[in-house]
Amino acid sequence: MFDNAEPAQLIDTMSDAARAESSAIARRLEAVAALYHQRREYYTEAQYWRTDVYTAVAAEVSAAQNISRSRAESQVRMAVSLHERLPKVAAVFAKGDIDFRMVQMIIARTDNVEEAVIGDLDGALASRVSKWMRLSKPKLRDRIDLFVAEHDPAGVRVPPIARDNRYFDVAPHVPGMAFAGGVLDALDAAAFDQRLDALAATVCANDPRSHSQRRADACGALGRQEGSLACRCGSSECPAAAVRESAAQVLIHVLAERATVEGTSDRPGYLSGFGVLPAESVRGAAKTAKLKPVKLPGAEPEPNYRPSAALKDFLRWRDLTCRFPGCDDPVETCDLDHTTPWPFGVTHASGLKHYCRTHHLVKTFFTGTTGWTDAQRPDGTIVLTAPTGHVYTTEAHGGALFPALAVPTAAVQTKQPPEGATDRLAMMPRRKRTRDEDRRDRIDRERRQRVEINAEVERQRQAWLTATYEPPPF
């Protein structure tokens, strides 16, 4: 495309594309905000529902954009805040004069500003922000905070308390591996560090692994509550080859084809929560694991509301995750949902699937002219129709990885439940406090902290002035 373009043309193309990208994002957020306001007017009582209007709109956004629920919810919050509190900044964004990075920063740093002054601050920022595009993230933050302080000193965001930001994550990495790490309390980290070193030291001197590799393997021993690390020297006379027993039963689920376990195929398996597991890792785990075949469902539906253990096991492996578009919540945290409500629907693989609790509530309670409907095919495919009439199709993740799990089960007959058969809204879980009330409490708490910080800074400044003042000699 650009083979014969001059450098000046390439620069102009980049600049135009950047502006167009910002304008497109601005238009998208404006549409999200408009959708939220329409849904809020329809669901006037939803503020105390556990699945409130924010969540319901996020479900539509995630399906339309094929993104996760958390990303969609973040987008709804930003869109609503931008267009309700900062319309002049939104207009600058729509022209492409600023980018999404800056808009995110402005929304975050002005969140505590009182409604009485946010309009003036919006105008002041809108007239200047296009000149700040070259600023680094710290400089941009400081520049915005300066304007916030001038308009509402108590509205300057308070740095988070470091202790409140502690976390520890375990997440998939390359196939067969995972990443683990986080920010811990210093004393807990010291104890963890020493425990890994102690476990790594329980092997003999001929163990071929490096110290770092032994510490990594010690995490598994620690998770199984074992008192030592298995030595890999290979010697039958290894002095570290004492009997190692686990103090806890740790259950790890791996899905694989029989041929992989038996060594006649190198098709990878699946480690629940972590994704694809190489064939050699599957066979290594199978040596000491309890092997349990997944039983395919029969043609006839089961007679009860709750599925049998065998059917639940099949559905777990067929679905692997929530079946709502864009949602990857694992089945361990999901609800089993009758596609057609019981007793009009059936307890069968063709009529059951997993939804996370949030999307289960959205499908169940956000009904009617602005609600969702779903249908299920015999192979487990779900066809959802959004409140707008848009149709989204999701296939079972386990069935896509292991085709034997997606072989169509028997088509079963269901009855259409009569309109108004139940008062669904009476069963909707309720919040004790609305999302806006929680936000207001958080802002009030931070504003009080900022007032105290400002008062302490002023006290120290006055003390310094007093200490450095020298009276005249006459």
| Helical run tally | 15
Number of strands: 10
Structural category: mainly alpha
Proportion of helical residues: 40-55%
What strand line-up does the widest sheet have? 3-4-5
List the uncertain runs.
none
Biggest sheet character? 3 strands, antiparallel
Order of helices and strands: HHHHHHHEEHHEHEEHHEEHEEEHH
> Kindly, what is the distance between the CA atoms of the first and last residues, rounded to a whole number of angstroms?
82 Å
Strand content: 5-15%
What form results from the Cα inertia axes? Answer: globular
What Rg is obtained from the alpha carbons, in whole angstroms?
29 Å
| Overall pLDDT metric | 88
Region (Disordered): 415-447
Pfam families: DUF222
Domain DUF222: 17-319
Biased composition (Basic and acidic residues): 434-447
Protein model, in words:
- A hairpin with a 5-residue loop joins strand 9 (382-385) and strand 10.
- By secondary structure, the protein is mainly alpha-helical.
- The strands form 4 sheets. The protein has a 3-stranded antiparallel beta sheet with strand order 3-4-5.
- Among the domains are: 7-159, no CATH class; 309-417, no CATH class.
- The protein has helices at 7-42, 53-65, 69-85, 87-94, 100-109, 115-126, 137-151, 186-200, 211-223, 258-262, 279-286, 309-319, 357-365, 397-401, 435-468; strands at residues 167-172, 178-183, 254-255, 269-271, 275-277, 334-338, 352-356, 373-376, 382-385, 391-394.
- The chain is built from 15 helices and 10 strands.
- Helix content is 45%, strand content 9%.
- Pfam families: DUF222.
- It comes from Mycolicibacterium chubuense (strain NBB4).
- Residues 17-319 form the DUF222 domain.
- This is DUF222 domain-containing protein.
- Residues 434-447 have a biased composition (Basic and acidic residues).
